[in-house]
Amino acid sequence: MKHVIDESEMHERYKSEIFDVMENEPYARFLGIKLVKISEGKAVAKLNVKDYMLNSHGTVHGAIIFAIADYVFASACNSYGKTAVGLSTTINYMKAGKKGSCLQATAIEEKKNHKLGWYKVEIESDEGLIATMEAVAYRKSQYFVPTED
After folding, report:
1. Which of UniProt's keywords are assigned here (predicted)?
2. Domain that holds residue 52
3. What string of H, E and C letters represents the secondary structure of the chain?
């Protein structure tokens, strides 16, 4: 009989290790994105907008907004210690982010099964909601935390 892993238990048992793995994601660290919180299927991160993150019009570049959205999506879908990768994303930009503002992105899992996970992401700044993302993750069979004692 195949052993079934309780993912809630995995999250609770390895929460700090999972947080550390996600917090040390190289590109997020390069940009200065800070992981604030990770829980089962949910993640929150912040980023202080620097001058080099602006576009030609003096507002936050769409790639920066996408980067923080993608990062919290990755953190949320990997929050059980099971390796998950992005399959598809759709982002909607609603308002320009401003120079000197703080972006906060929140990813929330809507549903998951053994192979896929569906997520909603909101990106806010000092001016309110600036973008949303819908994302789908492919959940691989391996875990990046121990599964046996």
Report:
1. Hydrolase
2. 7-143
3. CCCCCCHHHHHHHHHHHHHHHHHCCHHHHHHCCEEEEEECCEEEEEEECCHHHECCCCEECHHHHHHHHHHHHHHHHCCCCEEEEEEEEEEEECCCCECCCEEEEEEEEEEECCCEEEEEEEEEECCEEEEEEEEEEEEEEEECCCCCC
Q: Confirm whether 107 is domain-assigned.
A: yes
Q: Does 1 fall in a domain?
A: no
The angle subtended at Cα 24 by Cα 77 and Cα 79, nearest 5°, is 20
Mean pLDDT, contiguous 10-residue spans, the chain (149 residues): 79 95 96 98 98 96 98 98 97 96 98 97 95 98 84
16 part of a folded domain: yes
- For the entire predicted model, the pTM comes to 0.94
Q: Is position 149 within any domain?
A: no
22: domain CATH number?
Answer: 3.10.129.10
